[in-house]
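Question: does this match?
>
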Amino acid sequence: MTDESRVNPESRANTQKESSIRKGIAATDDGTNMRFFLCLIKQEFRELEVPEEQWGLQLRKYLTGKAMTHWELLQRSGTEISYWKLVRERLCERFCTLSREMMLERMRNNPWRGDYNEYIARFAEIVAQGETLAAEELVLCFFANIPVEIGDRLTQDGNKDSESWQEASAA
């Protein structure tokens, strides 16, 4: 315990909270799955009640390799690290390399092979590498290659609200 934390209980509380944040998130990313990773980190930061203006700064602790180097370049270039949307956008520009057209092409060429989990994994990999698409568009792309009888069964079983496309695809 430092002298400051003995004198200042608020400092001690901040140190304990920061320690629990580090314990709570085991994932790191080097840029290979940036979009998925940033969604995971956002969810974790919310659950750990990290103030949103600290997300960009806290993020550096979970980046490795080229992703960490790029984060440092963002900071040195004057990018407002406390603005999460901007940090996320810049990292995705760098590491999410598929254009919208290429993404849609890959989604069209993601055939149904009878294994739902395999289909989801391939779809998620395409999404993780590409530009951000609207949720409605992702849902349409996801169901486009699934056999009609499965779509009919899903429709008959009713609707369920989902927080994300990952949750919807797992339902």
Remarks:
- DSSP finds eleven helices and no strands in the chain.
- The radius of gyration is 20 Å.
